[in-house]
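Quick one: sequence plus zinc ion SMILES, need structure tokens.
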Amino acid sequence: MPIHHPSSNPAVDAHADYVAGRRSTLVSVGVNIGLSVAQAVAGLWAGSQALLADALHSLSDLMSDFVVLLAGHHGRKDPDATTSTATAATRPRLRWCWAVCCWS
Ligand SMILES: [Zn+2]
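Reply:
Sure thing.
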């Protein structure tokens, strides 16, 4: 994995952060799909409600991953002529939510 060197251009840094966060979230998507399926199969096979509950938990984590991907996608857009003031004001908050979700 390449080492991230901060650049003097904040837009370049923001893009590098977006790419790194997106990549780690996609890894999480893969892990949560595998976990959900494995836990559900093992839970059904063993008749274990605890494993089935864990499978549901992993599924809810998967939903969170998609929220993170969506927030990252919308939060990185810069305001343009068609962007309302309210929407432009919301974007930094979306970026913040996305950063918190990525690292939690
Ligand atoms: Zn969880």
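Residues 57, 61 surround zinc ion (CB under 6 Å). The mean pLDDT is 84.
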